[in-house]
């Protein structure tokens, strides 16, 4: 009884009971929390998120779809790059095999590309970076019926509409002198290159060598003039010979007859020399061509 009435003993017993009760409540609380965690884990794998409304496998499906789209986009980009490279290779091959020169100027008027024929015609090893005024510095305009050159006196002024992207220029004939002093006749055509939205991307200039054609035209003109002169000479000689022959037929004077015969022989020899000169020139022209 004394022990039960002792305040210290009573306090110890009370603390022991409280500790035991706390221990039991702690065990129950831990068990309840563990059960809640297990239920939450099952809900994450089987049920949708409460806040998002999508299950985990849906997120995985979305991620897989995004990866697939990224792979397809990468494949498409590689395919487009291969096509662009193949197109550039084909364009370079075609340009390198063209007999006419092809030049491409950017929007600033600087030459960005020139094929082998253009470099050979203009006499530049690497004309990239030059402007039209520098490229055609040694060129003079040849008047043609299709192109009026009264108000424009330089090649740059003639090509200005095409370089600005306002209009195409065609049928420009030039006398071009190379650095080696060779004179060439060039025909130039320029066309602006526009994008889908109508903006200027650059200007393409095509240069064609017409030197041999102009030489043939000049030779043909000279032959026509020579033929015309020859026909006049033949007509005059035949008229003279016919006059001498008529006088000879009507004359009964022996001395006059000899003189007329000499005149006919002299005129025939002159006619023979004229015809021989013409045939020799024609033969030489045929051999040279």
How many separate helices? 8
Please name the CATH architecture of the largest domain: 2-Layer Sandwich
Shape: rod-shaped
Averaged pLDDT: 78
- Major sheet size, sense and barrel closure: 6 strands, antiparallel
CATH top level class name of the largest domain:
Alpha Beta
Strands of the widest sheet, in order across it, are: 2-1-6-5-4-3
CATH topology call of the largest domain: Beta-Lactamase
Percentage of residues assigned to helices: 55-70%
Taken in chain order, the helices and strands follow as HHHEEHHEHEEEHH
Give the strand content. Answer: 15-25%
Please tally the β strands and state the result.
6
Tell me the Rg in angstroms.
51 Å
Explained architecture:
By secondary structure, the chain is α+β, with helices and mostly antiparallel strands. It folds into 4 domains: 2-46; 59-97; 101-208, 2-Layer Sandwich (Beta-Lactamase), CATH 3.30.450.20; 215-288, Helix Hairpins (Orthogonal Bundle), CATH 1.10.287. It contains 8 helices and 6 strands, in the order H-H-H-E-E-H-H-E-H-E-E-E-H-H. The protein has helices spanning 2-5, 7-46, 56-97, 116-122, 132-135, 155-164, 211-250, 254-288; strands at 101-105, 111-114, 139-142, 169-177, 183-194, 200-209. Strands 2-1-6-5-4-3 form a 6-stranded antiparallel beta sheet, sandwiched between helices. It starts with a helix and ends with a helix.
């Amino acid at each position: 009884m004394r022990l039960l009435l002792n305040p210290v003993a009573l306090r110890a017993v009370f603390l022991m009971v409280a500790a035991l009760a706390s221990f039991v409540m702690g065990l129950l609380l831990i068990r309840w929390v563990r059960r809640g965690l297990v239920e939450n884990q099952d809900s994450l794998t089987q049920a949708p998120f409460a806040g998002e409304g999508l299950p985990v496998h849906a997120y995985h499906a979305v991620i897989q779809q995004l990866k697939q789209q990224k792979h397809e986009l990468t494949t498409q980009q590689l395919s487009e790059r291969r096509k662009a490279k193949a197109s550039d290779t084909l364009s370079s091959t075609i340009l390198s095999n063209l007999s006419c020169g092809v030049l491409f100027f950017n929007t600033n008027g600087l030459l960005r590309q020139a094929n082998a024929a253009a470099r050979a015609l203009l006499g530049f090893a690497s004309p990239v970076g030059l402007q039209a005024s520098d490229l055609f510095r040694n060129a003079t305009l040849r008047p043609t019926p299709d192109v009026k050159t009264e108000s424009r006196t330089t090649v740059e002024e003639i090509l200005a509409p095409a370089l600005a992207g306002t209009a195409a220029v065609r049928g420009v004939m030039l006398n071009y002198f190379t650095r080696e002093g060779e004179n060439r006749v060039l025909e130039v055509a320029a066309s602006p290159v526009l994008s889908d939205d109508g903006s200027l991307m650059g200007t393409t200039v095509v240069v064609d060598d017409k030197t041999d054609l102009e030489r043939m035209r000049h030779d043909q003109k000279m032959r026509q003039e020579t033929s015309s002169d020859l026909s006049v000479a033949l007509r005059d000689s035949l008229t003279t010979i016919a006059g001498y022959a008529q006088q000879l037929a009507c004359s009964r004077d022996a001395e006059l007859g000899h003189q007329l015969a000499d005149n006919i022989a002299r005129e025939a020899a002159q006619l023979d020399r004229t015809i021989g000169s013409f045939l020799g020139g024609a033969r030489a022209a045929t051999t040279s061509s």
